[in-house]
């Protein structure tokens, strides 16, 4: 794989940059700018090298051209981060130079490629949400070729997208000399360090809503981990697999066989909660602590219990290498946040000195942010699914294409 960081001769070259400017939003309000911010070093590097830049990104999961998913507010946000003016291509005139121009038009329309190329000679151009085109997720080679005609060099900096086989992620390298951006390089270095660093005990913490996207990572990391601590939806599934009543707890019941299989093969390593916090499923009232096999039909498991928190904390305190994906419960509600928050504090306290700790997944980041310890973590991955697939040892189409 070739890395952008080793390229120093980009002056005058037009770079097509697949950035990850994805952000949860409420209308035009950006709720989490971590991926946008992680894209800035590569953009600045390209600016410093004298490159001309055309940026491609997606936001969310639109179905066709949906106004609520326009990249416009994100393009405006990027302009601010780069201390540049924002102008939409519709309002562009020749007086603009060295600004951020948002191309809201349809790139597949006749003449559009020429228009973007012209704009990019003087300004940074950001294209409209690339998932507005169905050809993107269809991984259309024709579309990829069309996109590649916008630049002379391709840089993929969207690590969180690397597990997707989409035109702007995994097909453009067929048509252009291609490089991994600074964010991708940083992610690869940190995740490879996690996989190769000899530091025992190594522990894995798994939670969140689903288990299906984490099975590969559990299996692969489970080979070298001493313990896999399980909370959240995945723990509920393991309780169900043991025949416990889990009431209306969050659980991917269709994965029951997978859970049974994991319990058979990783029995010694899986550490399940010994107590849980439950409440009435319909309104979260009458919260109580009980053993996992004492949950009532109309209740839901919403956090790990105090004994489990203590027990998990002891394991974290003794570890030298740690990775965490997924909160232990419904931490967004204060009465069910104690397990996740306590673990966040202890995990963070181990980092940067005692142990090497990596965290991934949007909800886990939110929890660490809420606990005000995000900056204490050794490495915070901007990605969710891509990180899990990478840690599972899978081939990621976006990375494979860069090789
Ligand atoms: C992610 O958050 O995992 C990536 O942005 C991929 O998003 P997607 O699930 O919409 O493909």
Describe the model:
- This protein is α/β, with parallel strands linked by helices and 403 residues long.
- It has two domains: 183 residues, Rossmann fold (3-Layer(aba) Sandwich); 195 residues, Rossmann fold, CATH 3.40.50.1260.
- It contains 15 helices and 18 strands.
- A seven-stranded parallel beta sheet has the order 5-6-7-4-1-8-9, with helices on both faces.
- Helix 8 packs parallel to helix 14 and helix 9 packs across helix 10.
- The longest helix is centred in the N-terminal third of the chain and has 15 residues.
- The structure holds 3-phosphoglyceric acid (3PG).
- Pathway: Carbohydrate degradation; glycolysis; pyruvate from D-glyceraldehyde 3-phosphate: step 2/5.
- Belongs to the phosphoglycerate kinase family.
- One of its GO terms (biological process) is gluconeogenesis.
Summed over residues and divided by their number, the pLDDT gives a mean of 97
Main pleated sheet: 7 strands, parallel
Please identify, by name, the CATH architecture of the largest domain.
Answer: 3-Layer(aba) Sandwich
Poorly predicted runs:
none
Determine and state the CATH class of the largest domain. Alpha Beta
Instruction: Output the structural class.
Output: alpha/beta
Bound molecule types: 3-phosphoglyceric acid
Principal-axes shape call = elongated
Tell me the fraction of residues in β-strands, as a range.
Answer: 15-25%
The third-level CATH topology of the largest domain is Rossmann fold
Strand order of the largest sheet: 5-6-7-4-1-8-9
Radius of gyration: 23 Å
Total separate domains: 2
């Amino acid at each position: 794989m070739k890395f952008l960081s080793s390229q120093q001769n980009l002056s005058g070259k037009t770079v097509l940059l697949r950035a990850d400017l994805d952000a949860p939003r409420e209308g035009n309000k950006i709720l989490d700018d971590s991926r946008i911010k992680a894209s800035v070093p590569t953009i600045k590097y390209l600016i410093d090298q004298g490159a001309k830049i055309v940026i491609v990104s997606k936001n969310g999961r639109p179905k066709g051209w949906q106004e609520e998913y326009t990249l416009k507010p994100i393009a405006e946000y990027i302009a601010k981060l780069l201390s540049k003016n924002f102008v939409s291509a519709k309002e562009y005139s020749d007086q603009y130079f060295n600004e951020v121009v948002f191309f809201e038009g349809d790139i597949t329309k006749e003449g559009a490629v020429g228009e973007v190329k012209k704009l990019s000679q003087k300004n940074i151009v950001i294209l409209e949400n690339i998932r507005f085109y169905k050809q993107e997720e269809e991984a259309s080679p024709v579309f990829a070729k069309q996109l590649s005609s916008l630049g002379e060099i391709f840089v993929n900096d969207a690590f969180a997208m690397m597990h997707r086989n989409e035109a702007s992620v995994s097909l453009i390298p067929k048509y252009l000399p291609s490089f991994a951006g600074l964010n991708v390089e940083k992610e690869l270095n940190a995740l490879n360090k996690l996989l190769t660093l000899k530091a025992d005990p190594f522990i894995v913490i798994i939670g969140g809503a689903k288990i299906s996207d984490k099975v590969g990572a559990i299996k692969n990391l489970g080979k070298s981990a001493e313990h896999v601590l399980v909370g959240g939806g995945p723990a509920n599934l393991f309780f169900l697999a043991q025949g416990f009543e889990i009431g209306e707890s969050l659980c991917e019941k269709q994965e029951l066989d997978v859970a049974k299989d994991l319990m058979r093969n990783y029995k010694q390593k899986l550490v399940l909660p010994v107590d849980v916090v439950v409440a009435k499923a319909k309104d979260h009232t009458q919260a109580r602590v009980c053993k996992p096999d004492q949950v009532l039909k109309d209740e839901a498991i919403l956090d790990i219990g105090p004994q489990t928190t203590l027990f998990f904390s002891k394991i974290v305190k003794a570890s030298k290498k740690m990775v965490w994906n997924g909160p232990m419960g419904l931490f967004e509600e204060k009465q069910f946040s104690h397990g996740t928050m306590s673990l966040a504090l202890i995990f963070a306290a181990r980092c940067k000195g005692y142990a090497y700790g990596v965290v991934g997944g949007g909800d886990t980041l939110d929890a660490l942010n809420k606990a005000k310890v995000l900056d204490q973590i050794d490495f915070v991955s901007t990605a969710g699914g891509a990180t899990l697939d990478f840690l599972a040892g899978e081939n990621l189409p976006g990375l494979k294409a860069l090789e």
